[in-house]
Design goal:
It is a single chain. The protein is of the alpha/beta class. It is 31% helix and 22% strand. Strands 2-1-3-4-5-6-7 form a 7-stranded mixed sheet. Strand 1 (3-7), helix 1 (12-21) and strand 2 (27-31) form a beta-alpha-beta unit.
């Protein structure tokens, strides 16, 4: 029987990457679209770690399955680390990827320092609240014009010098080797057997209730 782990997201691009990189014979990856409506988590944490744990633990409690969540963001040197934890809603609560990118490019216009880093924290939580944490980081440069059709978020304007491509020009395999999320997921994938045992140890089994009264 496969261990079900729920990705606390409805993002199809992210789900595709996670399934590709966490392919394990004993694990079945699902996401929130595989379940009915659940309340939305308010990502009001001060750090990526705060938000990742909040999403994972909430999802695990609500659905009764171990859950995995990441909080990732772009930290731009010239913007003092912004958009950071606000990366997904930099241009507003319901902003699209294109709107977030447009606002960020406007903010760095004319600035010489284009260095930036994608950062990621992954939290794996069980319904009881216990959690594991993994981290990854990748450095690059912000370019003026989007390039590439893969990926999502700020990928089209994040240039990775070592491969001479933006993240949106990388294949899933290339991105999985070098990206912030890829590095964190590599750690998760490398420890998946241990993680499965940890989940089993920290997930109490169902208690059987004794028979009450007599059958008539």
């Amino acid at each position: 029987m496969k261990q079900i782990i729920v990705l606390a997201t409805r993002n199809k691009g992210k789900t595709r990457e996670f399934k590709e990189l966490l392919n394990h014979p004993s694990v079945e990856i699902r996401n929130l679209d595989d379940f009915g409506p659940i309340p939305e988590v308010i990502e009001d944490g001060a750090t990526f770690d705060d938000n990742a744990y909040k999403k994972a633990s909430f999802t695990a409690r609500i659905l009764g399955y171990p859950a995995l969540a990441d909080d990732s963001g772009l930290c731009v040197d010239a913007l003092d680390g912004a958009p950071g934890v606000f990366s997904a809603r930099y241009a507003g609560e319901n902003a699209t990827d294109a709107e977030n990118v447009k606002k960020m490019l406007a903010a760095v216009k004319g600035k010489k320092n284009r260095n930036a880093a994608f950062k990621c924290v992954i939290s794996i939580a069980v319904p009881t609240g216990a959690a594991l944490t993994y981290e990854g980081e990748c450095s690059g440069v912000i370019i003026d014009e989007p390039a590439g059709n893969n990926g999502f978020g700020y990928d089209p304007v994040f240039f990775f010098p070592a491969l001479n491509k933006t993240f949106a020009q990388l294949t899933i395999e290339e991105k999985g080797r070098v990206s912030h999320r890829g590095k964190a997921l590599q750690e998760v994938a490398g420890e998946m057997d241990k993680i499965i045992k940890w989940i089993e140890f920290n997930t109490p089994g169902l208690e059987r209730a004794g028979c009450q009264g007599k059958l008539s």
